[in-house]
Design goal:
4-stranded antiparallel sheet; 5-stranded antiparallel sheet; 249 residues; 4 helices; single chain; Creatine Amidinohydrolase
């Protein structure tokens, strides 16, 4: 069931979203060669806890960290470790969730570590822009798949591919609520968007082919062809006039 949030719930989600945005702002300062993904995760965790919130991801279905940190050909759900250190040229996708007074915020961003390749720059630009192209369709009266279709067309028009296995989602008291929101599909399908709906829109875009594989750890997901992948996500509120980003400072 897709829930419509009350004014009180929206205020709590804005607070949760702001904490996520503050954690992104803090971790972004530390993305540089020689830093381990474990260190980055510790920064995320400490920032979330410092605002009286709880990391959404830690122990979620057994996930061992407070953030998902995915490098280069890792699409999503990378597990931070002390052994994995950043190098110049890496692209670093950081996915952060926080629970504030029982409500979730969720946002992912892909960062450049040092000097990255032209392929990486293009992929990051296209993926970020595809998020906002999708959000142009996040408005009352639109159909859910209008967002999905816009993301797919933009990414593929610019020479990239869309991951099929993972999708965006509704969000609120539960991190993954209805509806599921693919980043591909025909327009004019799915539910009609209404004011008060809260959605996590998150294109996962590959520089090469769309196929992925999951490592034996059960979490880390890589592109099958070894191509780079990027991930951008905001939690948004559907309003009378369009959308409002909740995961911002």
């Amino acid at each position: 069931m897709v829930t419509i949030k009350s004014e009180r719930e929206i205020l709590l989600m804005k607070e949760a979203g702001k904490i996520v945005a503050l954690a992104h702002a803090e971790v972004a300062k530390h993305i540089k060669p020689g830093v381990s993904t474990y260190e980055l995760d510790q920064i995320v965790e400490k920032t979330i806890l410092s605002y009286g919130a709880i990391p959404s991801f830690k122990n979620y279905n057994g996930f061992p960290a407070s953030s998902c940190i995915s490098l280069n050909d890792a699409v999503v759900h990378g597990i931070p470790t002390k052994q994995q250190t950043l190098k110049s040229g890496d692209i670093v996708s950081v996915d952060i969730g926080a629970i504030h007074k029982n409500y979730h915020g969720d946002s992912a961003w892909t960062y450049a570590c040092g000097d990255v390749s032209d392929v990486a720059k293009h992929l990051m630009k296209v993926t970020e822009e595809s998020l906002f192209v999708g959000l142009e369709n996040a408005k009352a009266g639109a159909r859910l798949s209008d967002i999905s279709h816009a993301i797919q067309v933009y990414a593929e028009t610019h020479g990239c591919s869309v991951v099929r296995e993972f999708v965006g989602h509704g969000i609120g008291k539960v991190m993954h609520e209805d509806p599921q929101i693919p980043n591909f599909g025909l327009p004019g399908r799915g539910i009609t968007l209404r004011p008060g709906m809260t959605l996590a829109i998150e294109p996962m875009i590959n520089a090469g082919r769309p196929e992925v594989k999951i490592l034996p750890d059960g979490w880390t997901t890589l592109t099958q062809d070894g191509s780079l992948s990027a991930h951008y996500e905001h939690t948004v509120l559907i309003t009378e006039s369009g959308y409002e980003i909740l995961t911002k400072i």
